[in-house]
Design goal:
Layout lengths: L1 E3 L10 E4 L4 H12 L4 E4 L11 H8 L5 E4 L9 H21 L5 E5 L23 H17 L4 E6 L1 E3 L10 H9 L4 E2 L7 E2 L1 E3 H13 L2 E7 L5 E2 H12 L5 E2 L15 H6 L8 H15 L1
Parallel strand pairs: 2-3, 2-4, 4-5, 5-6, 6-11, 7-10, 8-13
Antiparallel strand pairs: 1-11, 9-12
Helix pairs in contact: 1-6, 2-3, 3-4, 5-7, 7-9
Length: about 300
């Protein structure tokens, strides 16, 4: 769980975001700017972590007192080539942390709940790290790398559950792909009957948790999850409803066993007792509104 080094909210001097051009990174950068927090937003245009001079380039951005947020990743990580590249990217970050550790006031790494085994009955921060996918293995390895590099610098590792939002680039199974199918006037095809239950997180909530972690200069590990898991079938039906779409939600022959993920969010409530997640109905309605505003 998290330990707050700041009992009250204190704005960090400056936040350097590595991966500021991505889904979570861009949302986080906007959130911090709106709070009046100085940010350095590093996208792939400024820093390509796979280039030979990446460590030198990144180190030049770090100033004494900076907080560092690491979000950049090739995601989802699906194969061994992507796994190796993700580790190479983190190797660069860790090299810079080793060089500039005395400059950094705080480090936040955005990981994933994929580090846990699929069959955990009730997931907590104490659940064993036992990934069953390349994506989970990537984050587990990167967590270990950054823990080792951070040394005495306060480090927070945040593990979000499944994210959704209009700008998600991955089109992952669930709200993101379902919305896009609806907007293309295509039927939603489920895995089996869509019975699997997952804890779905609105991306704006993830950005706010990252901001709160920075404001409190928190260290430790925390899952970002609402504690309420919803089936993919229920998500699909709700999207059809809020979009007022004349399309069908179609089950298919099941090819894989049904797995669920449920979270015990006691540690989260203790860390941020005043934080309220966006409920799934409100979140999906917000995404629909964002789509309508694009027209």
């Amino acid at each position: 769980m998290l330990e707050h080094l700041n009992a009250e909210e204190i704005k960090p001097q400056r936040v350097v975001i590595v991966g500021a051009g991505g889904f979570v990174g861009s949302t986080t950068a906007r959130n911090l700017r709106e709070k009046g927090i100085a940010t350095i937003e590093l996208t792939r245009n400024e820093i390509n972590l796979l280039k030979d001079n990446a460590a030198h380039s990144l180190a030049e951005y770090i100033q004494p007192g900076d907080a560092l947020v690491v979000i950049s990743a090739i995601a989802p990580c699906k194969n061994s080539t992507q796994l190796v590249r993700n580790l190479q990217m983190m190797e660069v970050v860790c090299e810079v942390i080793a060089q500039k550790g005395d400059h950094l006031s705080h480090i936040v790494y955005i990981s994933s709940d994929a580090v846990y085994a699929d069959d955990v009955s009730l997931t907590t921060e104490e659940s064993k790290v036992e990934p069953s996918s390349m994506h989970g293995m990537m984050h587990a390895a990167r967590e270990l790398m950054i823990k080792t590099a951070a040394g005495s610098t306060p480090l927070a590792i945040l593990r979000p559950s499944l994210l959704y939002g209009i700008k998600d680039p991955h089109n992952g199974y669930g709200p993101n792909s379902f919305f896009r199918l609806v907007k293309q006037e295509q039927n939603i095809s489920l895995f089996g009957g869509g019975e699997e239950q997952r804890d779905h997180i609105y991306v704006e909530d993830v950005a706010e948790v990252i901001a709160q972690t920075l404001l409190h200069k928190s260290k430790g590990i925390l899952n970002i999850a609402t504690g309420i898991s919803v089936s993919f079938r229920a998500i699909a039906d709700k999207i059809v409803e809020v979009a007022k779409a004349d399309i069908k939600v179609e089950p298919t022959e099941r090819k894989n066993p049904i797995t669920h993920r449920h979270f015990d969010v006691t540690a989260f409530r203790k860390a941020f007792p005043n934080f309220s997640y966006t409920d799934i109905e409100t979140g999906l309605a917000k995404v629909e509104q964002e789509y309508s505003e694009m027209v």
